[in-house]
Amino acid sequence: QVQLVESGGGLVQPGGSLRLSCAASLSIFRYMTMGWYRQAPGKQRELVASINSGSTINYADFVKGRFTISRDNNKNMVYLQMNSLKPEDTAVYYCNSQAWNLDYWGQGTQVTVSS
Fold first, then answer.
1. Strand pairing report for 18-24 and 4-7
2. Strand, helix or coil for residue 106
3. 48 FRET partner, CA 20 to 30 A, in 57, 69, 101, 112?
4. 17-61, pLDDT tens digit by residue?
5. CB neighbours of 32 closer than 8 A, spacing ≥ 6?
6. Burial class for 104, CB neighbours closer than 10 Å (0-12, 13-18, 19+)
């Protein structure tokens, strides 16, 4: 059974940093495009950043220069380093894994940016 398990969320003050981690129980991890999505209350889920099997990275405009996505294929891990956090970054952050006809989601981790 495939599992994506996120960790690292929490409460942080504006301007602060958090590092999200996603552990994937996927034997084909290195072939998957890994992504971070977020969903704020009352809003649709949106892409934050993705990194494909060739380590090509895509960022949403609203996080460029603040967030960094990375992956470790030896550990089946993907990370999201979030700096200069803003209140509008408050959301549940989800890890996603896609390739071919496969599409997996984690359970999400809450990130709250508030003073």
1. antiparallel
2. coil
3. 101
4. 999 999 999 889 999 999 999 999 999 999 999 999 999 999 999
5. 24, 26, 53, 97, 98, 99, 102
6. middle
